[in-house]
């Protein structure tokens, strides 16, 4: 099989782990670092936006964003991301990974800055412009998913490819932490310089006018890491698999990779033409042949990512209740505006440090030893177990004495999401599809995940409301309650276990072996 593969691709497959692998991880990972920062930091500032723009005179509690505004501010980036994943995924296969990669990054930089420069002073115009730019920010972030994964998988060697793709994804953990740490620094600085009384002591004075700068600075700093990597992204050569197998330019692929690997490689133009002319390499995404070869694979990657993200993004709902319950975040009326940002940022950074970041790096360490399938199965299994363990004795967990136990269980659920399906659903779609459809299929899988994220973040916002209409949050109808929501999530994770069986194991195999690009029609190798 290997002798039929191009020398360029073989050289990449068996290359020892070396410096260019790490630069590729950093260059691709910085995009993810920025994505996580941008998508995440909005949750740090929504409370502040409510206090600044939705203050009600004489109210006992500080102003909050109305449900529809809150959903728009939080959800509009998801909509943009979903659209960006599909569009840039398709474009990455049409124009090449590298050219599109620069475009997504530029879009992220411009929109990060613009989202902090909202126009107008009244609540509606600020929220409208914030939502507009966050949509396009999401659009750029969406493009980063399929492209980062595809570029990394096409650059990596066979033996440690899983770890490299997972490492790019794990940069998300650092992005979340950076968002939290930066918010802590900014809010501390402003708190020290412009101190203010608590809301209950002086409702108007508790939000100083300078607080308006806090959220803008936090949002705009997201542009920095992206801008810094732009130059390096532009210097990175197009991946050899795209140049050879899709653009059919053997000479360019050989010369690009000779520079990267620092060995002499010959251009095998004839072989490129032989491989790309095989009927196995002619079918499109909507063909019978694609359905026959990869239909179940695509169903597997889309369904598992969809189910995982429902569970993963529902965590944001419980997070604030949990923080308040453990007493990490006191009641809003006892704090001034900037102090509240500080407290929320501190709590989220601690969670990221303790469960999110370690989970990602466990995946990086074990994915090429245990394999994708085992990690994904194990992750979904434990998530199911912990969700039911939280749900069934839910009343037990609400008592003050049992709070620590609740937080432990809760953290473990998300540790196994990250040391489990959250990482593997990102890795696998970049490995199992043919080169000319790889970025498109990854984009489709990722978009399906974002659809799940919307269900998780918004469906459960309404579902988790108390069944008793008098106890719901301002403006929400009655729901099914937190306990039943947790039971539903347990069921969703169980479905994830079942759909995992559709996904093939790609550990230690070359990309061409997985996508069967070197086979003749009868499925035989040469």
UniProtKB/TrEMBL annotation:
<keyword id="KW-0813">Transport</keyword>
<dbReference type="GO" id="GO:0006817">
    <property type="term" value="P:phosphate ion transport"/>
</dbReference>
<feature type="transmembrane region" description="Helical">
    <location>
        <begin position="485"/>
        <end position="504"/>
    </location>
</feature>
<dbReference type="InterPro" id="IPR004738">
    <property type="entry name" value="Phos_permease"/>
</dbReference>
<feature type="transmembrane region" description="Helical">
    <location>
        <begin position="373"/>
        <end position="392"/>
    </location>
</feature>
<dbReference type="InterPro" id="IPR005828">
    <property type="entry name" value="MFS_sugar_transport-like"/>
</dbReference>
<feature type="transmembrane region" description="Helical">
    <location>
        <begin position="443"/>
        <end position="464"/>
    </location>
</feature>
<feature type="transmembrane region" description="Helical">
    <location>
        <begin position="404"/>
        <end position="423"/>
    </location>
</feature>
<dbReference type="GO" id="GO:0016020">
    <property type="term" value="C:membrane"/>
</dbReference>
<dbReference type="GO" id="GO:0036377">
    <property type="term" value="P:arbuscular mycorrhizal association"/>
</dbReference>
<dbReference type="Pfam" id="PF00083">
    <property type="entry name" value="Sugar_tr"/>
</dbReference>
<feature type="transmembrane region" description="Helical">
    <location>
        <begin position="100"/>
        <end position="119"/>
    </location>
</feature>
<dbReference type="GO" id="GO:0031669">
    <property type="term" value="P:cellular response to nutrient levels"/>
</dbReference>
<keyword id="KW-0472">Membrane</keyword>
<feature type="transmembrane region" description="Helical">
    <location>
        <begin position="350"/>
        <end position="367"/>
    </location>
</feature>
<comment type="similarity">
    <text>Belongs to the major facilitator superfamily. Phosphate:H(+) symporter (TC 2.A.1.9) family.</text>
</comment>
<keyword id="KW-0812">Transmembrane</keyword>
<keyword id="KW-0592">Phosphate transport</keyword>
<feature type="transmembrane region" description="Helical">
    <location>
        <begin position="213"/>
        <end position="232"/>
    </location>
</feature>
<dbReference type="GO" id="GO:0005315">
    <property type="term" value="F:phosphate transmembrane transporter activity"/>
</dbReference>
<feature type="transmembrane region" description="Helical">
    <location>
        <begin position="20"/>
        <end position="45"/>
    </location>
</feature>
<protein>
    <recommendedName>
        <fullName>Major facilitator superfamily (MFS) profile domain-containing protein</fullName>
    </recommendedName>
</protein>
<feature type="transmembrane region" description="Helical">
    <location>
        <begin position="163"/>
        <end position="190"/>
    </location>
</feature>
<keyword id="KW-0769">Symport</keyword>
<dbReference type="InterPro" id="IPR020846">
    <property type="entry name" value="MFS_dom"/>
</dbReference>
<dbReference type="InterPro" id="IPR036259">
    <property type="entry name" value="MFS_trans_sf"/>
</dbReference>
<dbReference type="GO" id="GO:0015293">
    <property type="term" value="F:symporter activity"/>
</dbReference>
<keyword id="KW-1133">Transmembrane helix</keyword>
<feature type="domain" description="Major facilitator superfamily (MFS) profile">
    <location>
        <begin position="24"/>
        <end position="508"/>
    </location>
</feature>
């Amino acid at each position: 099989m290997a002798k039929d593969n191009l020398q360029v691709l073989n050289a990449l497959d068996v290359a020892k782990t070396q410096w260019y692998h790490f630069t590729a991880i950093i260059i691709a990972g910085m995009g993810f670092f920025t994505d996580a920062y941008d998508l995440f930091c909005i949750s740090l500032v929504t409370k502040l936006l409510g206090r600044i723009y939705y203050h009600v005179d004489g109210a006992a509690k500080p102003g909050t964003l109305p449900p529809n505004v809150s959903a728009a501010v939080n959800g509009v980036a998801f909509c943009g991301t979903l659209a960006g994943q599909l569009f840039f995924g398709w474009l990455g296969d049409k124009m090449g990974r590298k050219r599109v990669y620069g475009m997504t990054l530029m879009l992220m930089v411009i929109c990060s800055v613009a989202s902090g420069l909202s126009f107008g002073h009244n609540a509606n115009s600020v929220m409208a412009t914030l939502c507009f730019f966050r949509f396009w920010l999401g659009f750029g972030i969406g493009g980063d998913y399929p492209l980062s994964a595809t570029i990394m998988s096409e650059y990596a060697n066979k033996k440690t490819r899983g770890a490299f793709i997972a490492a790019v994804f794990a940069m998300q953990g650092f992005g979340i932490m950076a968002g939290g740490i930066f918010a802590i620094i900014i809010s501390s600085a402003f708190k020290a310089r412009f101190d203010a009384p608590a809301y209950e002591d002086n409702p108007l004075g508790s939000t100083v006018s300078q607080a308006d700068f806090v959220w803008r600075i936090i949002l705009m700093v997201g542009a920095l890491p992206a801008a810094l990597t732009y130059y390096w992204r532009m210097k990175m050569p197009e991946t050899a698999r795209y140049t050879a197998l899709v653009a059919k330019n053997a000479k360019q692929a050989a010369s690009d990779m000779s520079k990267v690997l620092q060995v002499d490689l010959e251009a095998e133009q004839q072989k490129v033409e032989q491989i790309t002319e095989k009927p196995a390499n002619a079918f499109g995404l909507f063909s019978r042949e694609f359905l026959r070869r990869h239909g179940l694979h695509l169903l597997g990657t889309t369904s598992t990512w969809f189910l995982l993200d429902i569970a993963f993004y529902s965590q944001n709902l419980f997070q604030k209740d949990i923080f308040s319950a453990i007493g990490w975040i006191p009641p809003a009326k006892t704090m001034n505006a900037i102090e509240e940002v500080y407290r929320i940022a501190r709590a989220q950074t601690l969670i990221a440090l303790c469960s999110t970041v370690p989970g990602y790096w466990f995946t990086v360490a074990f994915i090429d030893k245990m394999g994708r399938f085992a990690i994904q199965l194990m992750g979904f299994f434990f998530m199911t177990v912990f969700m039911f363990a939280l749900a069934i004795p839910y009343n037990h967990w609400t008592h003050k004495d049992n709070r620590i136990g609740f937080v432990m269980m809760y953290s473990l659920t998300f540790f196994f999401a990250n040391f489990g399906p959250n990482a593997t659903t990102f890795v696998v779609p970049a490995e199992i599809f043919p080169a000319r459809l790889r970025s498109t299929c990854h984009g489709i899988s990722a978009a399906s995940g974002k659809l799940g994220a919307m269900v998780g973040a918004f469906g459960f916002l309404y579902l988790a409301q108390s069944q008793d209409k008098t106890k719901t949050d301002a403006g929400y109808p009655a729901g099914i309650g937190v306990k039943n929501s947790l039971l539903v999530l347990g069921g969703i994770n169980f479905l994830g276990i079942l759909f995992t069986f559709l996904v093939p194991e790609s550990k230690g195999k070359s990309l061409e072996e997985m996508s069967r690009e070197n086979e003749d029609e009868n499925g035989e190798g040469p």
